[in-house]
Specification:
The complex is a heterodimer of chains A (about 190) and B (about 170). Chain A is an all-alpha fold. In chain A, about 65% of the residues lie in helices and about 0% in strands. Chain A contains eight helices and no strands. The interface between A and B is large, with 30 and 43 residues.
Chain lengths: ~190, ~170
């Protein structure tokens, strides 16, 4: 025997659609016929209620307030988040990275004002790194310093190599370092 | 002179025959009685203008229903904030207004009526429109599809979802 009809098939049959085999099943199945009658009754009741005057007026309930609270909380969090994001992006939170003014504990008002002005006029790093003449000069001097350091390292390595060549294989003739186990105990044996 | 009077006479007849139905439709779709009254006035203002200009024979009943449904939708769209606020209100016990429902509706029982209305209010706007046109106004699926600019298959899907939700409300505690 064919399986009973689903709700969708029953609704389709009620609407005048549905497959012929579903309709045949409906005519032969007492259980589906009962469900179909129930659907018909329900739709009639719903139609009567909705069509009858009056439609009930909506009454505000206390369940409404959490939506307002949720909306306010989300808006607040969004504003704070955006504020922090943009402040960080544009370097307006220089107080985080700026060095603490010397003697801040006992700083005078003028010193504090000067420190605040210095913080608020700090440029973001990418502005500082822009291709200005000063930045180029700084970059050139940094490069020179790196080359000099590299030369010094190479010269040091050459000196080490010449020292190793002069020692040859006589490394075992070298005096034992002070921390070699057994060293310094000869006097005790005698 | 008679030609000038004819549209007005037609308008008055249509007003007497359909005004209450259109306002009731508005109350079903908008929940707010004041909005429904405004929609009714807006629709009949359009009818008045149409009666002055339209010379072809028209089926004014379906025309009024279609204009009313569109006006309700426009109102919902324009007042999204207001709608959002209204969507957060709940029907409470004893919220049936002063006028008495029909004897058939009275036979259903007050608690059950409230459950049906609550469930109906929670339906999506499109599902409400489809259900009202099909099962309250008694339109065919094809007519509903044409009026709402949907395909018949889409109308059936909305209808099935609406019926499932509304029946679930009926099944709670019998």
């Amino acid at each position: 025997m064919r399986r009973c009809l689903g709700d969708k098939a029953l609704v389709l049959l009620y609407e005048g659609d549905g497959r012929p085999e579903d309709r045949r099943h409906l005519e032969g199945c007492a259980r589906c016929a009962d469900r179909y009658r129930q659907l018909t009754d329900d739709l009639r009741v719903i139609g009567v209620v909705l069509a009858s005057d009056p439609a009930p007026a909506a009454v505000p309930s206390r369940a409404a307030w959490p939506r307002w609270v949720a909306a306010a909380a989300v808006t607040f969090a969004l504003v704070i988040g955006l504020n922090l994001l943009f402040a960080r992006e544009w370097g307006r939170v220089a107080w985080r990275t700026a060095p603490e003014p010397a003697g801040a504990g006992g700083a005078t008002t003028e010193e504090l004002i000067a420190a605040v002005e210095a913080m608020t006029t700090d440029e973001p790093p990418w502005v500082e790194a822009a291709g200005t003449r000063a930045a180029s000069a700084r970059g050139a001097s940094t490069l020179e310093a790196s080359v000099a350091e590299l030369d010094a390292t190479v010269a040091g390595e050459e000196a080490c190599e010449s020292l190793a060549a002069s020692l040859g294989d006589g490394c075992d003739q070298l005096p034992a370092p002070a921390d070699t186990p057994g060293a310094g105990f000869e006097d005790l044996d005698s | 002179m008679e030609a000038a009077l004819h549209p007005n006479t037609q308008y008055e007849e249509l007003y007497a025959a359909h005004y209450a139905r259109i306002v009731r439709l508005g109350r079903m779709l908008l929940a707010n009685p004041d909005d429904a009254e405004e929609v009714g006035q807006e629709v009949f203002l359009k009818l008045f203008k149409a009666c002055q200009t339209e010379t072809r024979p028209m089926l004014w009943g379906p025309w009024l229903t279609r204009v009313a449904v569109n006006a309700c939708r426009d109102r919902r769209r324009s007042g999204w904030w207001k709608l959002w606020r209204e969507s957060s209100v709940e029907l409470q016990e004893g919220s049936i207004t002063s006028a008495e429902p029909s004897p058939e509706a009275q036979a259903v029982g007050r608690e059950r009526r409230d459950r049906i209305w609550q469930s109906f209010r929670r339906l999506a706007a499109r599902q409400q429109e489809v259900f009202v046109l099909r099962h309250v106004e008694g339109w065919s699926t094809e007519a509903v599809a044409q009026a709402l600019g949907l395909s018949p298959g889409s109308v059936k899907r909305h209808l099935f979802r609406a019926i499932r939700h509304l029946r679930a409300a009926l099944e709670v505690n019998g």
